[in-house]
Amino acid sequence: MVRVFSVLTLGLALVLSGCASRVDYGDAQARETVTADFGSTDLQMIATKMVDDMMVFPPIVEMTRERRPVLFVDRIKNKTSEHIDTESVTDTIQSKLINSGKFRFVDMSVVDRVREQLEYQQDSGLVDQATAAQMGRQIGAEFMLYGNLSSIVKRDDSTKDVYYKFTLKLLNIQSGIIEWSGEKEIRKTRKRSLFGF
Amino acid sequence: MKAPFSALAARLAVVLLAVVLAACSASNMARPGEDGEPRLYSNNSTLANRLAVEALQDKTVGDLLYVQATLENGWKFELDFQYKIKWFDRDGFEVAPESQPWRQLVMAGRSQNNVQAVAPNPSAVRYQIWVRE
User: Looking at chain A, which residue has its C-alpha nearest residue B98?
Assistant: First the structure.
């Protein structure tokens, strides 16, 4: 009787432990191939390729030799059928460019909040005017970063093939000239296994 | 006098265990180049044995270090792996370690590929090439 009870207890413990969920930290840079959709590995590959290409393009090297041009990021048009946070891609590119020490950025997404803060410093009467930031002293951006992310998806019963093309351009705001353009292509294929699992 | 079968099996098991443990403990394995300096680092001895750095070149673009490595797959089958360039400053500190991603590379059997990378900022003066599966 005791033996039966022990076996039952052990079995119950095994079943319960099998149902328990578990959370682990993983490598954020590990290859992510859960689906063929746009993923973290694609984002990292694109950002690295764009920054590397831009940094070694001779006119850019010449331009950044003595000064740190000011850029602003417009947006990456998502022309794929997926919902992709393209701002996340440009954020990574922007961080890498800033940390290279070659470029500076203005952030158009916080203009309203900066204006509020400037008005507070100027008009509230609460801020020592000797330390208050002055209106009209911001530096104008010289270049604009913008681009596209497009995809071509082909599929049949057993295979899904996705081709992504990311294009990034650097435009001189005053002259309208595109000073640099980079591209990154990614192909991903998902094949269904023999038994469809 | 013949050794009994059980003794032979025990010896074989010990040898196999030693081989497995040796394979598992080959961490941070580095493949040396002609000048004796390690060129390829990996925690995976199988991968490191199949790959070789055929040529390693670097130059300075502006004030950034620019590296090109010619990797050779000495294996007859396709190799699907990741590589990463780790950058170090003059004092041996790794530069921007979290912002350097592992990059994908698929190499056909017995083929060569050039991989290139640019230092994240001018403080990087040395580098190491790491590979993993």
Answer: A29
CA B72 to chain centre: 12
Domain-by-domain residue ranges, chain A? 36-125+140-191
| Region A36-125+140-191: CATH code | 3.40.50
| Nearest CA among A76, A88, A80, A79 for reference residue A145 | A76
Provide the residue count of chain A. 197
CA atoms of A146 and A74, how far apart (whole Å): 5
Which domain, by its residues, includes B128? 30-132
Q: Is the ipTM of this complex over 0.85?
A: no
The domain total for chain B is 1
Chain B positions touching A65 (Cβ under 8 A) are 62
What separation in angstroms does the CA of B1 have from each of B4, B6, B14?
9, 15, 22
* pLDDT tens profile A78-104: 999 999 999 999 999 999 999 999 999
0.90 exceeded by the pTM?
Answer: no
Q: Do B120 and A56 touch (CB under 8 A)?
A: no
Residues recorded for chain B: 133
